[in-house]
Amino acid sequence: MKGYDYKQAGAYFVTICKQNRDSLFGAVADDKVQLNDAGRMIEHWWFELDRKFSTVETHEFVDMPNHFHGIVMIAGVTVGATCVSALIQRAHT
Q: Between 73 and which of 13, 22, 54, 57 could a Cys-Cys bridge form, CB atoms 3.0 to 4.6 Å apart?
């Protein structure tokens, strides 16, 4: 949301889309997502986030062939705020 301070502690619903919506992370076969190595790498690092950052707690997620959805909780600690601020700044440049 425009004007929202995303470095605040809270729960965030994150969506990351592959540029041009190419199916880089896998494919759908028989109504199921079949992840390839890139898709499995995304899942791996999703599970690593709360191990790497003490202020982050990951929750439910869905890894699709061309995008990813996840819920992440960020605690109200300076390290988390700095990390989120840096990500937001990068997203707007």
A: 57
